[in-house]
Write a structure and sequence with these properties.
Distance between the termini: 33 Å
Order of helices and strands: EHEEHEHEHEEEHE
Helix content: 25-40%
Amino acid sequence: MNETESGNRVACIFGATGGIGAAMTQRLANDPEFSIVHAGSRSGNAPSHPNVRSFQFELTSEQSIRSTAESFKDSPPDLVVVATGVLTLEDGTGPEKSYRSLDAEAMAEVLTYNTIGPAMVAKHFLPLLPRDRRAVFAALSARVGSISDNKLGGWHSYRASKAALNMLIRNFAIEMGRSHKQAIIAGLHPGTVDTSLSEPFQGNVAEGKLFTPDYSAERLLNVLEGLTPSDSGGSFAWDGERVLD
């Protein structure tokens, strides 16, 4: 282990007040390999821990993300996780069961949160990743974003936004592989987690397949620790299984 790996690693979590983001933040803060966990949210709140540093950002504002990245230049993170996402909009719209339900404004909003926002985080944070050691950028995706695995249809905006995110992850991995040989760019499928995002749909979840945020966070962080640069560009489920493209 180099010095950074043995206790001075820095993590940055976007969406640190959501179920999975908060659980990831707490687990990383208790991990002796990490000295600082930067926890970002719209409110600026974060789990209380001496190793946690909170920051405020707005996912829909590139200027907000750019300003956040500028504050990290003197202490670049080794791990960046975008733990944000939306399935049902605040007004209750979505997910669509049929193409007849598609609404241009609602679709654009879902893509803004699930695809464009994470892409802007990548735009401004990928250049900060160290080149001389292992570094990871990950974003929460979903198995329903897999085109080849799609057997049911529906959920058009959500599926499309996650499929687009998966493509961006692949693109970023190819580009970063030219300059950051040890970098890993990955999508993460957390399973069905007991959060407000999945709450309206939990009735259809098989017994034993509804995870607590802490369990999902633990599994996802373990998956990230096991990835190598050869895995960069892929999306991986909570159990380590590679999600089909």
